[in-house]
Amino acid sequence: MTTSTTNATDGLRTRRVPTERLTVQLTEIRDEGEPVVFLHGNVSTAAFWHSTLPLLPDRYRPIAPDLRGFGGTDPLPIDATRGLRDHADDLAALLAALGIDRAHLVGWSMGGGVAMRYLCDHPATVCSLTLVNPVSPYGFGGTHGVDGALNSPDGAGSGGGTASPEFVARLAEGDRGEDSPFSPRAVLANHYLKPPRRPEREDAYVESMLTTRTGDDHYPGDSVPSPAWPGVAPGTRGILNCLSPLHSRLDELHLVRPKPPVLWIRGEDDTIVSDTSMFDLAHLGAIGALPGWDGTPAQPMVAQTRHVLNRYAAEGGTVREVAVPGAGHAVHLERPEEFGAALLEVLSA
After folding, report:
1. Average pLDDT, the chain
2. Which pairing describes strands 23-28 and 34-39: parallel, antiparallel, or unpaired?
3. Could you say which of 49, 58, 148, 224 has the lowest number of CB atoms within 10 Å?
């Protein structure tokens, strides 16, 4: 049994759908059409897609679920040793519960990683793949080179111990202010979008961020000491650990059959997923923002994604890269017309 609410302004409906794994909250508009599933990023919810869903023509059925640990979906623990498979398996269970055999996938940031993981596990069910400022196929932090080689065998420099303790505390406290650069609102304003742009639905996005469950099983996850710089390695639980290259790698993406068309769209001024990410401890060490840096190289996140997608294309896939000047991490919010045009092109390919 599901219950739903409808926003009369934009026609969006929100409901909770029981699946064989957990109950998922999703936002949708209509029940008919080609399914297009929108997957949000870390520290966010489906709310970050609410302005995008109405842009799709009636031939499509847009669906935006909250991933586990965010929004109204059951906050089950995350087994980080499975990489992003908890989330990909949740998606498979949701599509089964909705009676959907094949769908277009659109993944932003961490959601891009979930979409790539899902494609590797269920290639015949994916009509197209759109990656919006996606996390690297080699995870977040702790690697170097385009092939994602680990900086340390224990994954040091990635995982739950790399999060800002103040940001985690302000999330847990429900901080809605902007008196600190570590407040959710400040992170939204300064890193999700390129300053000085501020989103029209800023308050709603902050509320969305504040639904993030915190702790060892969720955000940021647990950690263990490491003899390698910066002295911390990933644990086995929680969201940042499932993004660690120790647990999450997509070396096999180029091998999937069949190969749906891929759109990779990104803001050129992204400070989160970047070759010079302000959230990568190695880059922060290189610019003097962290003491004791030993020369550990920063992760070339964009170059790694390009490397993996080039291999995908070399094996017969179709890949289009769109770099949007002047946009940051949430290009779909900052440049909706450009994003919408590129998305419709791959959906109709």
Report:
1. 96
2. unpaired
3. 58
- Cα distances (angstroms) measured from residue 14 to each of 3, 43, 185, 199: 8, 19, 24, 22
Strands 319-324, 143-144: pairing is: unpaired
Residue 191 — φ and ψ, nearest 5°?
-130, -35
CB neighbours of residue 197 within 10 Å: 15
Q: How far apart are alpha carbons 41 and 23 in whole angstroms?
A: 19
pLDDT band at 349 (very low <50, low <70, confident <90, very high): confident
108/179 Cα distance (integer angstroms):
28
Residue 245 carries which side chain, given as an amino acid letter?
Answer: P
What end-to-end distance do the CA atoms of the chain give, in Å? 36
Q: Structure tokens of 329? A: 């991490």
Dihedral sign for Cα atoms in the order 260, 261, 262, 265:
negative
- Would the pTM count as exceeding 0.90? yes
Closest CA to 138 of 330, 308, 337, 346: 308
Q: Which of 126, 148, 132 is nearest to 307 (CA)?
A: 148
Pairing of strands 223-225, 232-234: antiparallel
Which of the 8 DSSP states describes residue 10? T
| Burial grade of 189 (CB within 10 A; 0-12, 13-18, 19 or more) | buried
Cα–Cα distance, 280 to 302 (Å, whole number): 13
> DSSP 3-state assignment of 108?
strand
